[in-house]
TrEMBL record:
Annotated protein name in UniProt: (d)CMP kinase
PANTHER family hit by this protein: CYTIDYLATE KINASE, CYTIDYLATE KINASE/PANTOATE-BETA-ALANINE LIGASE
An annotated GO BP: nucleobase-containing small molecule interconversion
Pfam families (alphabetical): Cytidylate_kin
Limits of the Cytidylate kinase domain: 7-204
Class of the enzyme per the UniProt entry, highest EC level: transferase
Record InterPro entries: Cytidylate_kin, Cytidylate_kinase_dom, P-loop_NTPase
Native source species: freshwater metagenome
Catalysed reaction equations from the record: dCMP + ATP = dCDP + ADP; CMP + ATP = CDP + ADP
GO cellular-component term (any): cytosol
MF terms (GO), sorted A to Z: ATP binding; dCMP kinase activity
Family: Belongs to the cytidylate kinase family. Type 1 subfamily.
EC number from the UniProt entry: 2.7.4.25
């Protein structure tokens, strides 16, 4: 599926995916892709346009026609939404929009296209990277942590809100949040960032 080495990092909100994936990419001198930001960007644009998250066809049209960049900031159709994608309205709607199979198909295609354009390996984080987007990834990692700890890390989201998103993400029909059978599962609740990165690097050294 891809000729570029991929480390796939999955896990629920607040498990440390984005921070750890970005720092791991820097450690390896690889590229980094935050796929969650892509879904959030689509959500932000749809909300700006007054589209209801449940309007599957309208949301799919937004995703199909969107130009999304995640480096150095998050933009969609040249609109900087880096701050906007972390607002409560987006937090509330993103799991509904991400469950839309047409949106997921559009995003997965772009994620795979992005990966093959990278000159070296890439670290990709999300909720279905190891199970759906890159099932042949060099290494699959699934990060987790207690709901309370994840809420503390997020700061902008309550434990109830995070649990609600966990339930939606884990029970959706298409690309549900789950650990791949071959993934290394790491509970980050009581671990610092440096130790988690070192654990992943050691797993890579065994490949």
């Amino acid at each position: 599926m891809t000729t570029t080495p991929v480390v796939a990092i999955d896990g629920p909100a607040g498990s440390g995916k984005s921070t750890i994936a970005k720092l791991l990419a820097e450690r390896l001198n690889w590229s980094f892709l935050d796929t969650g930001a892509m879904y959030r960007a689509v959500t932000a644009l749809a909300l700006r346009q007054g589209i209801e998250p449940q309007d599957t066809l309208a949301i799919a049209a937004v995703a199909a026609n969107a130009r999304i960049e995640t480096i150095p900031f998050i933009s969609i159709n040249d609109l900087d939404v880096t701050i906007e994608i972390r607002q409560p309205a987006v937090n509330h709607a993103v799991s509904i929009i991400a469950a839309n199979p047409m949106v997921r198909a559009a995003m997965v295609e772009r994620q795979r296209e992005w990966s093959v354009r990278q000159p070296v390996g890439t670290v990709v984080e999300g909720r279905d990277i190891g199970t759906v987007v890159f099932p042949d990834a060099l290494l699959k990692v699934f990060l987790t942590a207690s709901v309370e700890e994840r809420s503390r890390r997020r700061g902008d989201e309550t434990a109830a809100s995070i649990q609600r998103r966990d339930d939606i993400d884990s029970n959706r029909d298409h690309s549900p949040l789950r650990a791949d059978a071959g993934a290394v599962v790491i509970d980050t609740t009581d671990k610092d960032i440096a130790s988690v990165i070192e654990e992943i690097v050691q797993c890579l050294n065994l490949r």
